[in-house]
Amino acid sequence: MIEKILPPWVASAESFDDPPGVTLFPEEEAVIARAVDKRRREFATARHCARQALAHLGLPPTPILPGERGAPGWPGGVVGAITHCAGYRAAAVSRDALTVGIDAEPHEPLPDGVLDAVSLEAERAAIARLDGGVHWDRLLFSAKESVYKAWFPLARRWLGFEEAHLVFDPSGTFTARLLVPGPSVAGRELTGFTGRWLVADGLVVTSIAVPERPRPDHAA
Ligand SMILES: CC(C)(COP(=O)(O)OP(=O)(O)OC[C@H]1O[C@@H](n2cnc3c(N)ncnc32)[C@H](O)[C@@H]1OP(=O)(O)O)[C@@H](O)C(=O)NCCC(=O)NCCS
């Protein structure tokens, strides 16, 4: 399902379970040597997805190790993102993007108290006016996670939940306006992102893909 919200210049792979027999590189094994089973499974299947996505770009299997502040380390010339939640794992990679962010969450309301901690008052007011059928609170959270995953490789610094203002279009897109100075990207200050969202199969998925060059198939 993630490919439905990614442009053709971003390759992806996903899994709804943890297939047996997934092998890790020794460097990856070392990272999760002491991890609990749940973490081991999501880490391993996400690497499996990442290698499938890299294969779509014609790239050979390679270790994908957590780097600075947990951001995944991709082969040279590649950017990408990883997500995992109960019942879902995915990776998206590109050689034609400046940055990519993806996130998946169960399509359920956020636990009590979380929305206030991860949103601006204006965002809460806006999602309260949107139609039912979508757990907008969870979607807002997921989109903010995608924003962070796209932001971090460019800025290499923290971005708080209150530092971007997200607005959703019920047709399946969103905008994120940065409320703090962004990094300089291709000679211009980054001021925000556009993204896409989808609810299907009991999941919320969100994505951001910023092309390296202006593209006719991209609105931003
Ligand atoms: C890092 C974070 C975004 C991960 O999101 P999550 O919903 O908790 O978990 P997901 O399963 O979807 O994603 C986990 C993956 O995110 C990636 N990730 C972790 N840190 C990252 C970073 N600094 N930059 C980019 N990607 C990162 C990793 O690939 C990780 O998987 P891995 O450890 O198996 O490699 C989240 O835990 C976090 O710290 N959020 C706070 C910052 C934030 O969201 N700000 C909002 C800005 S509007």
UniProtKB/TrEMBL annotation:
<dbReference type="Pfam" id="PF01648">
    <property type="entry name" value="ACPS"/>
</dbReference>
<dbReference type="InterPro" id="IPR041354">
    <property type="entry name" value="4PPT_N"/>
</dbReference>
<keyword id="KW-0808">Transferase</keyword>
<dbReference type="InterPro" id="IPR008278">
    <property type="entry name" value="4-PPantetheinyl_Trfase_dom"/>
</dbReference>
<dbReference type="InterPro" id="IPR037143">
    <property type="entry name" value="4-PPantetheinyl_Trfase_dom_sf"/>
</dbReference>
<dbReference type="InterPro" id="IPR003542">
    <property type="entry name" value="Enbac_synth_compD-like"/>
</dbReference>
<feature type="domain" description="4'-phosphopantetheinyl transferase N-terminal">
    <location>
        <begin position="27"/>
        <end position="94"/>
    </location>
</feature>
<protein>
    <submittedName>
        <fullName>4'-phosphopantetheinyl transferase</fullName>
    </submittedName>
</protein>
<feature type="domain" description="4'-phosphopantetheinyl transferase">
    <location>
        <begin position="100"/>
        <end position="181"/>
    </location>
</feature>
<dbReference type="Pfam" id="PF17837">
    <property type="entry name" value="4PPT_N"/>
</dbReference>
<dbReference type="GO" id="GO:0016740">
    <property type="term" value="F:transferase activity"/>
</dbReference>
